[in-house]
Amino acid sequence: MIGVVLAIVALAGATAPASAAVQSIAGVQETQEFQGDGVGSNRAAAITMARSDANAQAVAAGFRTTRCQTVSSNVFPDGLGFYLATVTISCSR
Hints:
- Keywords: Signal.
- The chain is α+β, with helices and mostly antiparallel strands.
- It contains two helices and three strands; from the N terminus they run αβαββ.
- Strands 1-3-2 form a three-stranded antiparallel sheet.
- Strand 2 and strand 3 form a beta hairpin.
- The longest helix is centred in the N-terminal third of the chain and has 25 residues.
């Protein structure tokens, strides 16, 4: 009877570290950046299109856009009356 109790206690102790390891792995977040490009007749339209492109890439990679934030955005005229933009977003899961 004492041997059975010791075996149960030993088994219980052996599973505790494994559970702790699983919890620490589950707490690791994956973060990835996506860069979108856009063209528009004004700055706001170009940035909106670039952000939409970056969001589409994130969704295709399995991220939720609600877990994404803008890291940077650049916009400049192309010399032909349009604006070119790039937006970089960082997403986590």
